[in-house]
Amino acid sequence: MKSFVATVLVALLFILALIFGARNEQVVTISYFVAQGEYRLPVVLAVVFFVGFMLSWLVASYYIVRLKLSLAATKKKLNQVLAKAPQDIDA
Description:
mainly alpha, two-stranded antiparallel sheet, 2 helices, Probable lipopolysaccharide assembly protein A, transmembrane helix
């Protein structure tokens, strides 16, 4: 449920950025290392937002996968310890 809410929030922010950009039809100049280009502001806003979202998603995915692998290894060790423990413990 958290991921659904986060996805909806990101989509709403993206739509808000597009609406903001659509109201601003200015042309902006972006200078690269070797060249420069002139682009409309909505395009620049959309590209920058999308690139930032993708970078954040990649970093978060790395940490999530790392945590899931760590959890799987810990569960495996726990199962091994429980298998070696005496079974006749009275509770």
